[in-house]
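Email to the structure team, subject: Cytochrome C biogenesis protein model.

Hi all, the expression group asked for a predicted structure before they design truncation constructs. Nothing fancy, just the tokens so they can compare against earlier work. One-line instruction: predict Cytochrome C biogenesis protein, return tokens.
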Amino acid sequence: LSFSYETLDGRELSTASLAGRFSVIGFVATYDVASQAEARFLAGLLRDHTPRINAALLVLEASENRPLVEAFAATLKLPYPVALADAPTIAGEGPFAGLHHVPSVVILDAEGREAFRHVGLITQEALEEVLRGLEREGARPAR
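Reply from the structure team: attached below.
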């Protein structure tokens, strides 16, 4: 899986920047209350499992919504990278094909392969259980 998005602070959210650890990526939108909950669940997950995992948020909104996305991230005090998706990703194409519903979560293994995908809200506890299972399995990529 290969991807690269610019984060709100001008850095890169990419396959390379996340390599070496499990990476939990939330797919959200600023207008969705469940997305706010997912963003908070990911913040708790990162807090409780640093440095074992990475977390990041990919906002499925057009670049003209950047001020809203910045306000969303600031209001929720998100401790991880937040990036705006590109047009193909928003359309459910590109590296995360078929994933254009919010909220959704993808977990990548340490080599950047997709190991888990969930459409809909998923709690911190459920994500912890998934991560434990992936660690036990040796994180074989999703089929």
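The first strand starts at residue 4 and ends at 6. Helices lie at 15-18, 33-49, 66-76, 87-90, 124-137. Ping us if the truncation boundaries need rechecking.
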